[in-house]
Amino acid sequence: MTTDSGMDHNICGMSVAIDVVGGKWRLHLMWVLSDGPRRFSEIRRLLEGVSEKVLTENLRHLETSGVVRREVFPEIPPRVEYSLTPLGAELAEALRPLEEWGDRHRGVLFTNLSAAS
């Protein structure tokens, strides 16, 4: 069944999750934000190599998905912070085993990937 938004509610949960966090930077963004609220410039420093445009696009996608909250503070100059919503915090917890798996198998994976290059 497809809704007015075009989302098929019969699609498997893995496909839905990948739609939210798929791509080069979204998992990294979730991980950075799991430590607490961050400003844009701080996120950009922590994610070496991401352009301002790509970071903005990915933050907007995560915000639209409901896993990231953007808060604008009424200050001069304006201050904006990004943080995980309760839904995002739950997703970050689900990603923790993936990080643990990567830590356990880092050496073998680097060796395999280096040999393939």
Automatic annotation (TrEMBL):
Residues 12-110 form the HTH hxlR-type domain. Keywords: DNA-binding, Transcription, Transcription regulation. GO terms for molecular function: DNA binding. Pfam families: HxlR. InterPro entries: ArsR-like_HTH, HTH_HxlR, WH-like_DNA-bd_sf, WH_DNA-bd_sf. PROSITE patterns: HTH_HXLR. This is Helix-turn-helix transcriptional regulator.
